[in-house]
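Reagents: none. Just compute today. Threonine/serine exporter family protein.
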Amino acid sequence: MRTPEEQLVDASLEIGKALLLAGGEVTRVEDTITRILHAYGMREIGVFTITSLIEVTACTPDGDEIVKARRIAGSYATDLDRVERLNALSREICAQCPPPQTLAARIEAIRRPRTEAAWISYAGAVLTACSFAVFFGGSAADIPAAAILACLICWMDRRGFYKKANQLLFYLLCSMLTGFLGCVLVRMGVGVHLDKILIGCIMLTIPGISITYAMRDMLLGESITGLFRFIESLLIAATIAGGFLLSTVVAEGVLG
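Predicted 3D structure written out:
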């Protein structure tokens, strides 16, 4: 049976994992875990975090050493509301020191995704894709095609085809289907400038936030995590570009 100190370390690891998956930076994760353990009287605390692993070592007030690690597996997504709620929970834990066995349910309640109306996601995707298509030189005639392709991307993202298992495969399939359908729509007269339409749609998939986080981590001294995130972002960007290129080549061969 786990001791209260082990339950506390497990809970702090779960908070750190939830922060990472919601887009929290590595320094935030390490500081949050350290502050929680300090609040309960733990000593000699060491926290090591990268995008795929959190490791904690700490000594209990009785002098026993606890070493635990948590493998971070899952799809990363920027959810600032979840980050804020986790921060509020960690501050409450540090101030009140509730029993460790009560923390698991509260953490799970925050990690549980909130239901969101589907139309909000589709409206945001359509607005983004159409705006960028026009911004980069497209015309009003390109808006219907950009809107259709944006809905396709949003539908695939909400369905999560292969996204949790293999993000590269997801983005490859998404870009190939979007590029091929874009060629078909332009050939049918729905849209004029194929390149501008695809530029608008690619903005929905490009990992801009991930690249920003990678630069931020490296500037904060977390070189390993920053390099991991930067390389992952480059692979995703290359996969997206390759998918769109391959789809246009295939479409030209099939459609003549």
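The first helix runs from residue 4 to 21.
Action item: order primers for follow-up constructs.
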